[in-house]
Amino acid sequence: MAWTAPKIKEITCGMEVTRYLPADDDRQESL
């Protein structure tokens, strides 16, 4: 169970970065 906490945090961080990257790309392409 102890290893589940850090893993979830890592996934959340990666998801946030992946979410922002495509959003920025889409914005630049739209411009």
Automatic annotation (TrEMBL):
Work out whether the entry's keyword set contains Lipid metabolism.
no
Q: Which UniProt keywords apply?
A: PQQ biosynthesis
- Give the record's pathway: Cofactor biosynthesis; pyrroloquinoline quinone biosynthesis
Any coiled-coil regions, as ranges: none
Its job: Required for coenzyme pyrroloquinoline quinone (PQQ) biosynthesis. PQQ is probably formed by cross-linking a specific glutamate to a specific tyrosine residue and excising these residues from the peptide.
Q: Which HAMAP family match?
A: PQQ_syn_PqqA
Q: What is this protein called?
A: Coenzyme PQQ synthesis protein A
Q: Which organism is it from?
A: Acuticoccus sediminis
The UniProt gene name for this protein comes to pqqA
